[in-house]
Write a structure and sequence with these properties.
The chain is mostly helical. It has helices at 17-20, 23-34, 36-39, 51-85, 94-107, 116-129, 132-136, 138-149; strands spanning 2-6, 9-13. It has a two-stranded antiparallel ribbon. A hairpin with a 2-residue loop joins strand 1 (2-6) and strand 2. The chain is globular. The N and C termini lie far apart (74 Å).
Length: 176
C-alpha cells in the first residue's frame, strides 16, 4: 500500500479485494500486461496468404495494437487509480479519481507520477506489491500464456510430448 497526497489529504492506494472486483481495472490490467493490446487489431492472417503479405499484416497489427495501448494509457491510469482508491478512500467514481489526478499533477508538476504514463507505472508497481495480479489470477494466466506462446527457444517451459493412449492408436496396415 502506498499513499498519494492531494490537496493536503492523504489517499491510500491499495489493490486488494475491492480493486480485484472492479472489472474494468482487471480487464485493462490483463490487456496491457498480457500483450493483448499488441495483437488485438488485425490478428493473424490465414495460412493461404503469401509470406510477405503475412509479415506486413502482422507488422501493421503490432503497430496498431501498440498505438491503441499508448492512446489508452490515460484511461488505464485513471481506472487503476480509482481501483486503488476503492479499499480505503471515499472516492465515488472514476470522474472523481480523474479530478484528483488532475489536482495532483497541478500540485506536483515535477513529480515523475505527474503524467499519465508516470502514474500508470507507479500504480502498476503498487498492484504488484499488493499482490493484485496473484489475487485476480492474472499472474498465473499470463505465465501460462507466455509458456504456451514463447520461452521455448532455450528449452525452458518445453511442453511435454503428448502420447496417444494405446487403445486409440491407428492399427498399422501391414502387408507382410
Amino acid at each position: 500500500m502506498r499513499t498519494l497526497t492531494i490537496g493536503g489529504n492523504d489517499y491510500k492506494i491499495e489493490y486488494s479485494f475491492e480493486a480485484a472486483e472492479y472489472k474494468d481495472c482487471v480487464d485493462k490490467a490483463f490487456k496491457i500486461l498480457s500483450g493483448g493490446y499488441l495483437m488485438r487489431r488485425n490478428g493473424i492472417p490465414d495460412d493461404d496468404s503469401p509470406v510477405a503479405e503475412r509479415k506486413r499484416e502482422m507488422a501493421a497489427a503490432f503497430v496498431d495494437g501498440t498505438g491503441d495501448m499508448l492512446s489508452d494509457i490515460p484511461q488505464i491510469a485513471i481506472t487503476f487509480l480509482y481501483g486503488g482508491f476503492l479499499e480505503n478512500n471515499p472516492v465515488a467514481s472514476e470522474a472523481e479519481a480523474k479530478a484528483l489526478f488532475k489536482q495532483f499533477v497541478k500540485e506536483n508538476p515535477n513529480d515523475e507520477r505527474a503524467s499519465f504514463f508516470g502514474m500508470y507505472a507507479f500504480l502498476r508497481d503498487c498492484m504488484e506489491e499488493d499482490g493484485f495480479f496473484k489475487l485476480t489470477g492474472l499472474e498465473k494466466m499470463i505465465a501460462e500464456m507466455n509458456a504456451a506462446t514463447g520461452g521455448h527457444e532455450k528449452g525452458e517451459n518445453k511442453p511435454k510430448p503428448v502420447k496417444a493412449p494405446a487403445d486409440r492408436r491407428r492399427k498399422s496396415a501391414s502387408t507382410k
